[in-house]
Amino acid sequence: MAVAFLQHSNSIALRLSSASTASLGSSPSSRKPAFLGGLRFESSSSLQPHAISSSSSSSTSSISAGDEALEAHVRNGDSSEEVVAVPEESSESEPEEEPSISSEDVRVVQEIGAASRAPVVPGRIHGRLKINLDLLLYKAKLAQRTKKKFMADAILRECIRDWADDGRAYVALGTSLVKSGKIKEARKLYEDGCQACRGENPYIWQALAVLEERSGNVSRARTLFDAATVADKKHAAAWHGWAVLELRNGSMRKARALLLKGLKFCGPNEYLYQTLAIIEVRMGEIEQARTYFTKATQANSKSAASWLAWALMEAEYGIKASVRQLFQRGLQAVPRNGHIWQAWARFEAKDGNKGRARHLFQRGMELNPKDVVLLQAFALFEYDCGQPDIARRHFRRAVLIDAKHQPLWLAWGWVEWKEGNLDSARDYYQKSLAVSNRNLNAVKTYQAWGVLEGKDENYGAARALFRSALRLDSQNMPAWLSWAAMEERCGNAVRAEELRTQCLQQRTEVVEEAPWDVNISEFLAPTIEGLAGILDPAEKRRTNPPDIAQELGSADKDFDIDGFLAEKFPWKYKPPQQQRSPIAPKNLTNKP
Predict the structure, then answer these.
(1) Which residue, 236, 287, 543, 575, could crosslink 566 as a Cys pair with Cβ 3.0–4.6 Å?
(2) How far is Cα 449 from Cα 423, in angstroms, rounded to an integer?
(3) pLDDT recorded at residue 85
């Protein structure tokens, strides 16, 4: 039996090795990418580097711009004005704490190892049924949810060993390794997965591309996204990820062209339409952005991100009634989405409806009691309403939920600085840097702490903090302007002007080159639009936004939040008491 098992294993290994050699030796014309074979990808060869040129701007009002930008950074927290399907993260992942290994984990891993040494049964693939792979992946997912990382990784490695040509285990294990800070090991795992799957699995290519992008290897990430689209041109996530990469690097035309290609091959997709709408907003084409948002919500009416992004755009350019209807549609789609509750509450607070804003915050916290971002926004709202004690209460509750949420410490420190408690503010800034001192939130913390020390006349410490912020991000304008404003208050006008000059030199602007996959009509479109504006400027250059109430006809004008929640969650919210007709008393007189 043992000899037969060894012979069977050797034959499988020979077949796998011959298949890998054949895949690596295939010609590039087959359009099936392999990883280390040095293959050339067709569309990636036409990508050209961006041309960089310095831009200048006026610095007359730059003295107070640093403090205003600091307040804007703190108030925004983690909520951004734009909603992209792929959230932004830092280029380097913070390692997580390794969980303790329990005896139960060791027992389960030993059982998995014993099951893998079972004899080969005819009719199975590599000695195991395919359904067992699905069950093991589900078990690994449950282990990850219960924070049993050791058990989950052991199960995933077992899946990779027995089903080497299935990409799901590679992606799941690689994601776990990236969260633990093991970047090199995750990269090696993805490369092995690409070879084992013969370059035909777009999910592994995409995961490796995202890893390279976060590591700062933008050109290599482009090549890997290209490989993912070659492996499966209908893989919408690859087109979207590639477009987001170009968008983050300032190439809006390339991002737009990639999204249009994705729609051509994949059909209607909410994420592609949503990102296209955001690009149109940046380019000033509001009507076209509304069209894309409409298509995104039609592709998936339950997409909270699409409704939220559309509402934020209308809050900037549209009508207030339309904004409230869009928020309403988003809550009807996903009632527990904390981002919609936060954005709607902040919109009402900005519009002066403090009571309605507080009501929205409270209902959002009832549905999302562990949402730290929503709780942080609620605390800042209460501070703006003149309730610092209530704000501190919310901050303490948020810290108990997630003490590693860095913007929380930054916002709390800013509140204490405004209240004059400098020692408490320094303590909270220090705790913010203890979470991470290498990401964008660390830059904001250094800048805020520098402003504090400058106002307290600790100029040496303030300069050191500003240098730390600019060492991480040399193009951070609030840090430059805050430093220049402090030097000007000290009487060092020459030094302040030098800092402003350096700020202008550090600011770079990406010049858009000619797109590599557009036709001649797209080049002539701006000229044609300009001529049309000259001939008919009244209709073509209309600035008043249209009312989109007709497109949102199903939305109620007066949305009853409590009634909606009582209908959706009757076990949590009691419906309003209905008026009952009075019952006539019975005749209690004794009959004769």
Answers:
(1) 575
(2) 11
(3) 40
pLDDT in the model for residue 262: 94
- The SS3 assignment for 360 reads helix
Query: Residue 106 and residue 336: Cα distance in Å, rounded?
Result: 37
Provide φ and ψ at 125, rounded to 5°: -95, 115
Instruction: Report yes or no: 361 and 374 within 8 Å, Cβ to Cβ.
Output: yes
Q: Is 463 part of any domain?
A: yes
Whether 514 is in a domain gets the answer no
Say which amino acid occupies 220.
Answer: R
Domain range for 504: 406-509
- How many distinct structural domains can be found in the chain? 1
Q: What are the helix (H) ranges across 2-129?
A: 2-24, 65-76, 103-116
| pLDDT for 124 | 40
Place of tokens 């998936």: 300
Here the CATH number for the domain that contains residue 444 is 1.25.40.10
Query: Residue 49 falls within a domain, yes or no?
Result: no
∠ at Cα 104 (100, 108), nearest 5°?
Answer: 115
Helix 149-162 vs helix 130-145: angle between axes, to the nearest 10 degrees? Answer: 160
Residue 48 forms part of a structural domain: no
Q: How many CB atoms lie within 10 A of CB 136?
A: 20
Closest CA to 368 of 399, 342, 336, 401: 336
Tokens of 375: 């709780």
pLDDT for residue 562: 79
With contact defined as beta carbons under 8 Å apart, do 64 and 286 qualify? Answer: no
Half-sphere exposure of 504 (CA within 13 A, CB side): 12
Rounded to 5 degrees, φ, ψ at 511 are -90, 125
The per-residue DSSP string of 469-515 comes to: HHHH-TT-HHHHHHHHHHHHHTT-HHHHHHHHHHHHHH-EEEEP---
Please tell me the total number of residues recorded for the chain in this structure: 592
Bridge partners of residue 128, in order along the sequence: 125
DSSP assignment of 270-306: HHHHHHHHHHHHHTT-HHHHHHHHHHHHHH-TT-HHH
